[in-house]
Each structure stands twice: as C-alpha cells, then as structure tokens.
Design goal:
The chain has about 220 residues and is an all-alpha fold. It contains 14 helices and no strands. It starts with a helix and ends with a helix.
Length: about 220
Amino acid sequence: MEYKEVINKLRSLSNPKNVEGMTRFGINPENTFGISIPDLRKLAKQIGKDHNLALQLWKSGYHEARILAGMIDVPELVTEAQMDSWIKDFNSWDLCDQVCMNLFGNTIFAFEKAIEWTKLKPEFEKRAGFALMAVLAWHDKKEDDKKFLKFLPYIKSAATDERNYVKKAVNWALRQIGKRSLSLREQSKKLAEDIIRSYPNSKSAKWIARDAIRELTRN
C-alpha cells in the first residue's frame, strides 16, 4: 500500500465513540481515530513489512498511524537514531508500549536502550525504558537470565518516581523479570523487599514492591 492509501484506510476505520472510551483509559485523544488494536493488526498484515512506509506513517503524527508504523517496520533496518527520535514523540502509554512490543524489543539495540532510557526525565521516554525491559523479559526466551539481573538496579533507582505511567512500567518490568524463571523470581522478590526497606516513605515504591511480591508469590 502507498502512504495516502493507508491514511485513507485509517480515516475510514475512524470511530469517534472509541476515542471517548480511549480517553477514559488515559490514552491521549489528540490526532486519534479510535481504531482498535486488532483492526490495526489486520491492516498491518495486509500491508506487510515496509520500513520506508513506517517512517512516513510516523511523520504523519496520527496516533494509530504511529502504532501501525511500529507493526510494519523492519527491526533490522531500525537505527538507534530512529529509536531515540521516536520516543520523543511518545505522548500516550499505549503508543509507548505498542512500539516497544511490536518493534523496539526486536532490535539489536533493545537491551542497551532499555537501560539508557530509564535515565531520561520525560515521563513517556522513561516509561519506554521499563516497558522495553518488561517486553524483553516476556518475549526474549533465548537470552541468558543473567542479562536481566542488570536491569534490577535501575528498577530500584526509579521506584520512588511518583508519576503514574513511570511507576506502572517499573512495576511491570519487575513482575515480568520475576516471571521469567524461578531464579529471577527470587531475585525480583528480594529486590522488592529491599525497595520497601530503602524507601519507607515513598507511596510509589511501596505500591511497586508490594504489588510485585503479591503477584510473584501467587504465581
């Protein structure tokens, strides 16, 4: 498909009522068509992988066009510069998470960027680092567990960040790392207990740690 054809298709799938619902779930309604993820996946399948089209769709500024860009881009052609540029445009948790799941987690830069981005200040850029950690722990079955231990100090250092979309991603990363193996489960639970001891006055730290302990103990 050509760029204009894809944009016209997105417009034809537009659903204003869905936009209202998305807003209630904390999704930025700006430049949003209200298209469901399953519908975007169907469209991505029809289009196939296309790096140049993905770059064009990202530049459009449309919310769903950017999610679609992450679905059709080619991980092997993605550069560090592209990744660093795209995260600056993240303005919603779903855009951040979808691009990390569908694209960034499959690049050769994923582990490096996961750590690097946790040191950034903007809320969704920082979230991207922890979302990427969660995605890697969830999807990358071949990687050695030792590599995920390197993420734990960064999780602890961000545990006191009270911003909603950061703390939820920190918690997500901790839980996913803990679910990866029995060894990592014990290491993650120990870290959670350490977070509670280290930051007794932080509501965010206590929520992140206690929620992770509850889930990792239950499962």
